[in-house]
Amino acid sequence: MFTxxxxxxxxxxxxxxxxxxKVFVISTPKLISQIEVxxxxxxxxxxxxxxxxxxxxxxxQAVHVTLExxxxxxLNIGDKVNLELALRASDRLGGHLVQGHxxxxxxxxxxxxxxxxxxxxxxxPSDLRKYFIDEGxxxxxxxxxxxxxxxxxxxxxxxxxxTYENTTLGVKKIGESVxxxxxMMAKYLENFAKFRN
Length: 197
Prior knowledge:
The protein folds into 2 domains: 8-85, Elongation Factor Tu (Ef-tu), domain 3; 104-194, Beta Barrel (Elongation Factor Tu (Ef-tu), domain 3). It is built from 3 helices and 12 strands. The chain has helices spanning 64-69, 161-166, 184-196, and strands at residues 8-17, 21-27, 40-43, 46-54, 57-63, 80-85, 104-114, 117-123, 137-140, 143-150, 154-159, 177-182. Strand 4 and strand 5 (57-63) form a beta hairpin. The longest helix is centred in the last third of the chain and has 13 residues, at 184-196.
């Protein structure tokens, strides 16, 4: 379980193809001392397991279905990724509960600067639209964000300078894909309503 509060921006150092999918070697000098083998690490919002640690890098394996469902399959050497360590019982829940189970991919379609802040609009999969409301929560590339406006086929989020500068949103380009995880409470409510009827 995660909070959607990004702790560091990691860098892809190596990408290794294997029968299972891809192995990523990621550098994070800031977090490496806190990572142990078998730890869960949200990587662009995808929960992955650290399988090896060396110097200031850790290694994770992403299977084929994860690569297809998320933007991890598009990563190359030198790319940046959002990193968050798993939530501990003593941690503050500053964002919202994020599972690290990506529901689909969106696409950045517009960026507008509003004073010191930014507005970003993302095209979203049609099957996920029902889970989003104005002022609701969403995780985009693992970042806990509040939806400013939920449109018919897209949604708008407001980005403060700290988030823009300390996540990959600051380098995201129009047309690039993002990982989307809906608020789990929305899915629980949907499931409850289905069985109640």
